[in-house]
Design brief:
About 45% of the residues lie in helices and about 15% in strands. The protein is α/β, with parallel strands linked by helices and about 325 residues long. The chain has two domains: about 180 residues, Rossmann fold (3-Layer(aba) Sandwich), CATH 3.40.50; about 120 residues, CBS-domain (Roll), CATH 3.10.580. Strand 3, helix 5 and strand 4 form a beta-alpha-beta unit. Helix 1 crosses helix 7, helix 2 packs across helix 7 and helix 3 runs parallel beside helix 7. It starts with a helix and ends with a helix. The model has no long low-confidence stretch (mean pLDDT about 90).
């Protein structure tokens, strides 16, 4: 009984922690103003530069994630540790770069050498801080002010709500830049070729074969079998005189319709009409689902009814799709 009560109390407390952070996010959302828009304008204007993100302690950890999100959504970025910066790494900063610096207090000592360097050499700084009178705010060309929020920590000490708010601001910056640059799923795929994201973004055109098993409606089955054997996909696409898809003949069709006069039959007599087709720009994961759902092994890839490729379930399996 005592254990159950403790677990219930902890569950309620956990909810209060999350609710406190939600409140902080709401305050941050309501406080965004023209400074945020100016920050987007500034970063967007630096066509050949990087967004160099920096912060000390917990904001530094958040900064690494923000930098990674920026880079993965089309805005080149890297993280610069402020302590390392003051021991020689300031040399990585160029005048084409923008410094995005995170500090809730804005008076973190380790940031001072980097901010002084930036001001001395005309490098633009965007500060994210709760203190508009801080060293960071005064050194920044643009300051995004974080409201004076309460940390979810019961002592109002451990960075919790503040870091959640900072990561949300970073996400907002990255995605506003993504939208302004018209960064699309194809661009995203180029930067995420591996892992689950890469698999999700594969398209049919990335996996399809273009050497197609094509026969005409009036071709005899002898020719159909020769074409199917030569192309080794276990099927043949039947096209009309205009080159559009009329149907498909699969190994299953052969087994179901074979008889004594089979070789004298024509493709149009044996084919399955209205076969399932996908476009080259269909996600490969979706094509895999279609084949699994309908218990088929191949799909015709077409544009405006004309065949342009074929995708086999084995192609999807090799790509790690199931």
């Amino acid at each position: 009984m005592e254990q159950n009560n403790r677990r219930l109390d902890e569950l309620e407390y956990a909810k209060s922690v999350i609710q406190e952070e939600i409140s902080g996010l709401t305050e941050m959302c309501n406080s965004l103003n023209g400074s945020f828009s100016s920050a987007i304008d500034l970063i967007y204007s630096k066509k050949n530069g990087h967004v160099i993100v920096s912060g000390m302690g917990k904001p530094g950890h958040i900064g690494r994630k923000i930098s990674a999100t920026l880079s993965s959504t089309g805005t080149p970025s890297f993280f610069l540790h402020p302590a390392e910066a003051s021991h020689g790494d300031l040399g990585v900063i160029s005048r084409n770069d923008v410094l995005l610096v995170l500090s809730f207090s804005g008076n973190t000592n380790e940031l001072v050498p980097m901010l002084s360097y930036a001001n001395r050499f005309g490098i633009d700084v965007i500060g994210v801080t709760s203190n508009e009178n801080s060293v960071l705010a005064k050194a920044s060309k643009i300051t995004i002010i974080v409201p004076s929020i309460h940390e979810a920590c019961p002592h109002n000490l451990a960075p919790t709500t503040s870091t959640t708010v900072m990561i949300a601001v970073g996400d907002a910056i990255a995605l506003c830049l993504l939208k302004r640059k018209n960064f699309n799923s194809d661009d995203f795929k180029q930067l995420h070729p591996g892992g689950a994201l890469g698999k999700r973004l594969l398209m049919v055109k990335d996996l399809m074969h273009c050497d197609l098993p094509l026969v005409k409606e009036y071709d005899f089955m002898k020719s159909v079998l020769e074409e199917m054997t030569a192309k080794s996909f276990g099927c043949a696409f039947v096209i009309d005189d205009d080159g559009k898809i009329s149907g498909i003949i699969t190994d299953g069709d052969l087994r179901r319709k074979v008889n004594n006069n089979f070789m004298e039959a024509k493709a149009g007599d044996v084919m399955t009409s209205n076969p399932r087709m996908v476009s080259p720009n269909t996600f490969a994961q979706e094509a895999t689902k279609i084949m699994n759902d309908h218990k088929i092994t191949t799909l015709i890839v077409s544009e405006d009814g004309y065949p342009c490729g074929i995708i086999h379930i084995h192609d999807c399996l090799r790509a790690g799709l199931a």
